[in-house]
């Protein structure tokens, strides 16, 4: 049975109790009931809520990863975490350059057709492929409004894909996640500059924080889930080290767990201490 458990639950990495961070052996797991019994604190935990990590929380907190900035006061805590991935930037950037280079030729041809129908023959310097005496051609005929509008509509999905891949490349270079905790309302924002997806939650109603690991061995794809008045999920594009560190910080702050390793950059939040 222990061998089967190891195969089913990937025990190459240590399962830990989400309450006290104690390692849980395969023998402490009840598959039929779908729970695990912590040998230290005695708490029963659903299998989906076990922490799958070889490192203890105190060790994770003690090794703050690069690409993290902290702005802390007794009332507000803001944590900025970069999403930078040079590998993702290179792959997405090369694809975006190749795709947009091809689509750009057809876009210029569509612009040439619009300008020709509005203003007449194009100047010699206009980069319209196949133009004859300033007249853009399609199927060896001048581009009238009909073919021009058809080409414009046809290109819309291709342009959208190109812009999307350019955004993905930029996101992998300068994207970030920002987490702000304050008594009046907390939020998580992911994106670039002001182009961000905002998710808000009430920190006074947080009942659980979970770390869902990627099924693959890739360092990304992990998800942090905050259960409050609304369930907030984020962190998919964070590196494994940054996601683990942020998860442990949020859990110790918002749930007031007994496992606490002080971080010099983070000041105690007065309103959280009052709640505890």
Topology:
Layout: H1 2-9, E1 15-16, E2 23-24, E3 29-30, E4 35-37, E5 44-46, E6 51-52, H2 57-62, E7 68-72, E8 76-82, H3 86-119, E9 137-138, E10 141-142, H4 145-174, E11 176-182, E12 186-192, E13 195-201, E14 208-212, E15 223-227, E16 231-234, H5 240-254, H6 270-275
Antiparallel strand pairs: 1-2, 1-6, 3-4, 4-5, 7-8, 8-11, 9-10, 11-12, 12-13, 14-15, 15-16
Describe the structure.
This protein is of the alpha+beta class and 276 residues long. It has six helices and 16 strands. The strands form five sheets. A five-stranded antiparallel sheet has the order 7-8-11-12-13. A hairpin with a 3-residue loop joins strand 7 (68-72) and strand 8 (76-82). The two termini are 41 Å apart. The model is unreliable at 1-12 (pLDDT under 50).
β content, as a range?
Answer: 15-25%
Instruction: Indicate the structural class.
Output: alpha+beta
String of helices and strands: HEEEEEEHEEHEEHEEEEEEHH
Radius of gyration: 27 Å
Query: Could you describe the largest sheet, including whether it forms a barrel?
Result: 5 strands, antiparallel
